[in-house]
Amino acid sequence: MTDDLDVVCLRAMQTLPGTSKAQLLLNSARTLIDAGQYSQEVETYIDALLRIPGLSSQQMAEALLVRGAARRSAGQQLVAQADQDFRKVLQLDPLNVQAKSFLSRDHHANGSRVEAHLRLPLHLRLPLEVWEMITGFVPRYHLRPLLSVSTFFRNIAQRTIFRAVDAYLSEESEVIGRAMDFFERVKEDPTFAGRIQTLRIHIAMEESELLDVLLRIIRTTLPALKALREVEWIGYPEFSPDEVDVLRVSHPHLQSLGIVGWHFDAIGVSKLSALRKFCLRAEDDDGSADMSEVRAVLDNNEQSLRYLCLGASLNRPHSWDDAFESGAVRNLVELHLVDTRISHLVLTRLIHASRLRALTLHGSLEDANAAAVVFGTDHVVNGEHTILPFLEELRFAMVGHDDDTNLFRAVARFTKGRRRIRRLDLGTCPFDVLLSVLPTLPSLRVLRLRTHFLGDQAVSALVKTIPREMIGIHLAVSNSAHPLHEYAHEFTRFGLLAVLHLNRLSHRRPQPNSMSDKDLQIQTDAWLANARSVALTIRSLDFVGWHREHYVVVRHGDAVDLKELPVRKRLDCGQGVDLGGSDGAWLELKDVPADWETPGLDVD
Hints:
Blueprint: H1 2-14, H2 18-34, H3 40-50, H4 57-92, H5 97-119, H6 122-125, H7 128-135, H8 140-143, H9 151-161, E1 164-169, H10 173-188, H11 190-195, E2 198-204, H12 209-221, E3 230-236, H13 241-250, E4 256-261, E5 277-282, H14 292-300, E6 307-311, E7 334-342, H15 344-350, E8 358-365, H16 368-376, E9 380-381, E10 384-385, E11 393-398, H17 405-415, E12 423-425, H18 431-437, E13 446-454, H19 456-465, E14 472-480, E15 499-504, H20 517-537, E16 543-546, E17 549-556, E18 559-564, H21 582-587
Parallel strand pairs: 1-2, 2-3, 3-4, 4-5, 5-6, 6-7, 7-8, 8-11, 11-12, 12-13, 13-14, 14-15, 15-16
Antiparallel strand pairs: 9-10, 16-17, 17-18
Helix pairs in contact: 2-3, 2-4, 3-4, 4-5, 7-9, 10-12, 16-17, 17-18
């Protein structure tokens, strides 16, 4: 029976293609090495593997690495055993010259290797794990050059760049072609697919046979993304029960799901029971899924859910009261209510979510006076606030409450003295009220503010009230005494400032349809020169925001070049462009209303 089995196995192996034979030999060699049985047999396997025609450079490199590591390990073991022999010789004959010579030679060789390693530049001495941590803080624009430096850096850059992928689908053939190439590569290249942890699908298509084909391709591609942890679906058609069923089967332990569209159609989404993050943005409440499904999502993920984002449209009737009756609310660490009506019940429920570290309230309040009373119930006991004591970031951007001074004063008192606050955006809070709060926030690093008029005294007062360790500032104004770039020198006191956005709400890039080509060129050059002067003045900047446009700062000695970041897609996610990390993303977060046209957080 054993002989028959051997014959069958041999025939099966003979029918394998070359790449599969190579993988079989490599796996066999690894098995022997892991079992501590490195021998000539392993060498034979690797030699045979390297002679297989048509191998990719990646497969050859992997085989050589396996053999090289095994040889080095075996060699080190032999050297250690040899040293033991020489030491035993010296125990028997302390004056033996040969044994002393061998031990001395090994000691000098090891010392030389250490000295040679220390003479290498620092970037060549850092281990892989450190480089991967570093690249996690580098914007994609600056990661691209690493792709052509070496295989080592290329692999690091690829792992970081492809950790999160945005796939766009529209009626344009070029866009569809790129999407098809991506889905095909995911299916054919497991290594590439294994790098993708976050997939964001942006879709804007009408019902058609082509759409049906694309949706089937997406459903068959999702199971190939073995490392997938987060999925976002933005646009129309909305995330449907078919996609929900695929995810439930292929990724039952999915950690994050985001759904942005006109309707909520994701019937069955509540059956996902391991979610840590859930985001729902739906303008209408007449989708296929009942809104009670939102409550079910919270209830079924009560133990795991830590991040919740809910959004609707201020122009439509809606309510989150039922969802906020769920016990999951008290376990939340991040809560974002965006472009939505906030009822008194919702407000009173969320202030009892004592674990909250991040809170966004954007929209309108059902009762501003009652909200002011709720915020006013906060007290400080032994240096700690009684309401949301662990809060580290707060965004309070209200629509239609600009003149409600009592509300903003209550929110200011609620914010004042919070030593953990790192990111702050109080929307249209009066400038003098905001200035009374800022000096009491020693941990503040990211600030977004807006004022009607900016003058010399206002800028001077602002920069003196915030910590010198600021990382990001977004300053939006309706009017100013001088062009905004002339205030850049005031921000040089912040040695760590990486992102500065100067935003005059009435300004925009020169438009070609309103002037001649010559005037357009002159005004565009002036526009870019003013933005560049900000980067020249503040040497620490990595990004410049200039009247709602974003630029990467590229420095060549004393010279500065600005590389414009792509404008946001019509269907985009709330994270916007890559600004080097979570601080920049939070600072420049743009609301994405379901109608895709209204300005959201930038509303006048």
